[in-house]
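Sharing a chain and its predicted structure for anyone who wants a worked example. Both blocks are below, sequence first, tokens second.
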Amino acid sequence: MSASGSILRRFQQLILIALESYDTLYRRYPGMVNAELAKSVELQRAAIATIADAETKKAIGELSGSVALLSPARIFSC
């Protein structure tokens, strides 16, 4: 084999190695994206649950206050 043929063969091997490396890397992207999406969804779920809990407690407090204002004992004591 000539020197130029040997260099060409080595260059082809390097290109093949680089392409295989990129292929391996890009095959992992869907899984990586899915994992990050799952984390984001879970964080959003937790945030929404916290907000919903706070709003529920606020509504119950306001309702209790309204019921107390309209209770028969309070109405008849005036």
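Comments welcome. The chain has a mean pLDDT of 87.
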